Amino acid sequence: MRKYSKSETKTNIAIKLWTSRSKAFTLVELLVAISIIGLMSSITVVALKSARAQSRDAKRINQLGQLQTALELYFDKHGTYPQVNNASTSKKENGCGQSGSWCELETALTAFMNPIPRDPLGLQDDYRLYYDSDSNTNNNSYGLMTRMEHGANVSLMVNDGGYYLDFYEIGPEPPYCARTYSGNGADWLTANSKVCQGGD
């Protein structure tokens, strides 16, 4: 049987100690790993929140497009757009809008779209859908709008041809008012049934 020298014995002991220690994590290593996992989780949550907001904005645009189609079908049948002013899906009116106007619009469009949409976030006041018809032109004009949630869609709201820079607007009324009047005069969503605030 081979005998080990003192130096060889010390080396073997050192290797065994190093091997046994390397099998476990130190406290510092565990803390670093936990920090990295926490950071990655935070990044994932932020990215997911952003993707959901983008998805809701896409749904809002789609909803307005569907409403626009229903409004045109209504116009083809009746020769005018539904006479509903300043309608919105706000939380304050339980999704029926001012004086029940959104539900009034829903009733008018029942044959073409039922139910008509509400905002993807549900009933609340920051993000909602709007409709306004212009009785001053025998309801031959209307506007639809919604607020975008994702920062990447700001340019859609600014460059849609309408009056409001913080809303996405479609329909004949918004660009007409923005083109014809300036300042508050281009405000098309009004309770007094005029095509533009301060204009006629």
UniProtKB/TrEMBL annotation:
One of its GO terms (cellular component) is membrane. The keyword Glycoprotein does not apply. Gene3D superfamilies: Glycoprotein, Type 4 Pilin. Coiled coil: none annotated. SUPFAM superfamilies: Pili subunits. NCBIfam families: IV_pilin_GFxxxE. This is Type II secretion system protein GspG C-terminal domain-containing protein. It comes from Candidatus Doudnabacteria bacterium RIFCSPHIGHO2_01_FULL_43_23.
